[in-house]
Amino acid sequence: GRLVRLEVENFKSYKGHQVIGPFHNFSSVIGPNGAGKSNLMDAISFVLGVKSNKLRSSNVKDLIYRGRAMETNQDSVVEGLAVNQGIDEEDDEETARNRSGYVMAVYEDDNGKEMRFMRSITSNGDIEYRLNGRKVAYTRYNDALEEQNILVKARNFLVFQGDIEHIASQSPKDLTKLIEQIS
Amino acid sequence: GRLVRLEVENFKSYKGHQVIGPFHNFSSVIGPNGAGKSNLMDAISFVLGVKSNKLRSSNVKDLIYRGRAMETNQDSVVEGLAVNQGIDEEDDEETARNRSGYVMAVYEDDNGKEMRFMRSITSNGDIEYRLNGRKVAYTRYNDALEEQNILVKARNFLVFQGDIEHIASQSPKDLTKLIEQIS
Amino acid sequence: RYKLFYDAFSHIQGKIDQIYKDLTKSQAFPLGGTAYLSLEDSEEPYLDGIKYHAMPPMKRFRDMEQLSGGEKTMAALALLFAIHSYQPSPFFVLDEVDAALDNANVAKIANYIRDHANEKFQFIVISLKSSLYEKAESLVGIYRDQQVNSSRTLTLKLNDYEE
Amino acid sequence: RYKLFYDAFSHIQGKIDQIYKDLTKSQAFPLGGTAYLSLEDSEEPYLDGIKYHAMPPMKRFRDMEQLSGGEKTMAALALLFAIHSYQPSPFFVLDEVDAALDNANVAKIANYIRDHANEKFQFIVISLKSSLYEKAESLVGIYRDQQVNSSRTLTLKLNDYEE
Ligand SMILES: Nc1ncnc2c1ncn2[C@@H]1O[C@H](COP(=O)(O)OP(=O)(O)OP(=O)(O)O)[C@@H](O)[C@H]1O
Ligand SMILES: Nc1ncnc2c1ncn2[C@@H]1O[C@H](COP(=O)(O)OP(=O)(O)OP(=O)(O)O)[C@@H](O)[C@H]1O
Ligand SMILES: [Mg+2]
Ligand SMILES: [Mg+2]
Q1: Which ligand is located closest to the Cα atom of residue C151?
Q2: pLDDT tens profile D16-40
Q3: How far apart are CA D130 and CA B100, in angstroms?
Q4: Within 6 Å (CB) of ligand 2, which residues are found?
Q5: Ligand 2 atom 19 nearest Cα
Q6: Distance of CA A100 to CAs A17, B1, C20, C130, Å?
Q7: Which of B112, D39, D91, D116 gives 20 to 30 Å between its CA and that of B58?
Q8: Which residues, 6 or more positions from A113, have their beta carbon under 8 angstroms from its beta carbon?
C-alpha cells in the first residue's frame, strides 16, 4: 500500500483546511527553515496515533493552529513591535481556544482500495478516530493500521529530525526492544 | 590572541607527527565523512584540558592512534576481508599499547608573543602538561589559559558536532550555570 | 515468543551486511563496508542486548561510538532498511537524515532510495539538499504565506524521473 | 557573587536582541526577529533559571521547543555570540553548526562570521557546505591517506578574501 495524500485542518502551522499531496513512490518535501516541513511529518505521525509528546508538544491543544495573537503582557514590548511591522491582530485567546482540528490520511492498500484514516481534536481537547468516515475506538483504528503493516509502537519507519545518528548507537537493550516489537 | 597552528603526534586518526595549520581569522575545515575533522576539534579541545569523555572516548588511551590491527577473534571473519582488500597488518596489540601521543597548540597573544601549550599522554596512560616547553601542573596550565580568556570550564566557545540545537533549548538552570561560570 | 524473536533477529542478521555494502560501496572501495549484529547472551536473547557493529570500507573494527557523524548516519540507515526487510511497513518518512552527510554519501542514499522505492515501499523524504531532492519522483514544496500567517504547500512532478 | 552574575546577565540581555536581529534580518524582513532573556525569580537570580526567548521575524511568541530545527540553530548562535561579547574568548571552534540551516541562513551565518572575525576574534568552522566554507579566509582540507591509514591535512589560502 501507500500514502496517497493528506488532508489537514488547523494542524500546527497549517491554518484552515488544506490538501497536501499527492505523494508518489519517492516524494521529497522541501522548503526554507520554519516553513512547516517537520510539522507535515508531525501530521503524518499524529494521524497514525503517535502521542503529542513525540510531536514537540506538551499537550494536544498545542497541535491546533494558533495565529498571531500575543499571549501574556510580557509580550507587550513584542506586541508593539508586531503592530509596527504591520501584523494584524488575528487571533484572540477565545477563538484559538475553541478551535478544533484534524488530520486525514488517504491510503491505498495493495489491491488499490482506498482507506481513510482520520484523527481529530475536538474543541474541548478530546481525540476522535474515524476509519472511512465512521467513528471507531482506538484499538479498532490501530488494528486496521497493523493489517497494513504500519506498526506505530515500533515506529521504525518514522525518523524524526535529529534522531538518525542515535539509531546507530542506541543501547543493545533498546535494539532488542525494537526487534521484539516487530517480531 | 589567536591560534596559529597545531602539532599532533599519534592523536586519534592522525598517525605520527603532523603539523596542522596555519589558521587565520576565519578558517574553515573541510573534508569527506570520516576524514578526521571532528578529531581535529577533539585535538584542540584536548590540548585545552577538556576531559576525554567529551571527546567520544571512554578513556585516554582511546585518544592515541591505533592502526589497522584486528583485535578480537570475532574479527577473524573481518580479518579475512581486510587481508583480501590488500590491507597490511600494521599494528599488533603490543605496539598500539605502548604508543604515546600529544597535542601542542601554538598560540599568539594580543601582543604578538608566541605561547606553546602542550598536553601529552605517556605510554602508561599518564597526562603531562607543558607550557612553553616546561612541564607544569594542571592548575598553572589552566591559569595561563584563563589569562587569555580561554575558560575551559564554561566551554561556550567550543560547539561539538550535533550540540548546536540543544544550546537554544537548554534548561533555565543550565543557562544560569553557564552565565555563572563566565561571570 | 523466543522463536518469533529469533526469526526476526536471524533474518535481519542475514540482510544487514549486504545492505550496508550497497550503501557504502564506491569506485574506490567496490566491496563496501562490513556490518553485523551480535547477541550479548545467546542463551536467552530476548532478555539481553543486541549489539550492532558497522565498519566503513577499509577501516578497522571500532566501537560504534568512535564512528564519525556521517559514518553513524550511514550505519543507522542500513539498520533501518534491514529491519524493514523483515517487517515491511508500506512507507518511510525521513526528516533531514542527510544533515551530516557529505555529497558522496548523499548521492549514495539518493540512489539507494530511487532503486528501492516502488508501489509497496514508498519514501517521503524531507531534505534541504538539492542533490537529494532532485532525484525524487515528485516534490512537495512548503512555504510560509505571510499574509495569512500559515504554511502552504504545492506539488511538482519531476518529469525526468522516468530516466 | 550576585553582582558579578548580574553584570553578566544584564550585559548579555542588552546585546542579545541586536545580535539576533543581525542574524535574522533579510530583504523580506529588514527588522529581523526578537530575542531576550528573562529571570524566573529576580530575587536571587543565581539561584534560579534564566529563560531564553527567541522569535523569528513575523512569528508569534512561542515556546523555544516549538521552533523548527533551523530556527533553533539561529537562536543558539545568537546566544553564543551574545555571551562571547561579555567574556570574549580568543577563538571559536564550530563543528557543522550549519547542518540544519537552509541556504539563506547559511549565507547569513557566513556573512556574520566574515564581518566579525578579526585578530581578537578567530573562527575555526568545520563545514560540509560550500556556501559557508568558500567565504573563509583559508581552508584546512582533511583527507584520509589510505596507504598509511591516517588522516592528513593541507591548507589553502583563498585569495579573493580581500574583497
Ligand atoms: N500550533 C501551531 N500553530 C501555528 N504555528 C505553529 C504551531 N506549532 C508550531 N508552529 C510553528 O511552526 C514552525 C516550525 O515549523 P517546522 O518545524 O515544521 O519547520 P521546518 O520546515 O521543519 O524547518 P527546519 O528546516 O528548520 O527544520 C515554528 O516556527 C512554529 O512557530
Ligand atoms: N584512536 C584512533 N585511532 C585511529 N582512528 C581513530 C581513532 N579514534 C577515532 N578514529 C577514527 O576516526 C574516524 C572519525 O573521524 P571524525 O569523527 O573526525 O570524522 P569527520 O571528518 O568529523 O566526519 P563527519 O563529516 O562524518 O563528521 C572514525 O572513522 C574513527 O574510526
Ligand atoms: Mg524541520
Ligand atoms: Mg565530524
Answers
A1: 1
A2: 999 999 999 999 999 999 999 998 8
A3: 36
A4: B 12-13, 31, 33-39, 62, 64-66, 161; C 59, 62, 66-71, 100
A5: B34
A6: 11, 58, 45, 36
A7: D91
A8: none
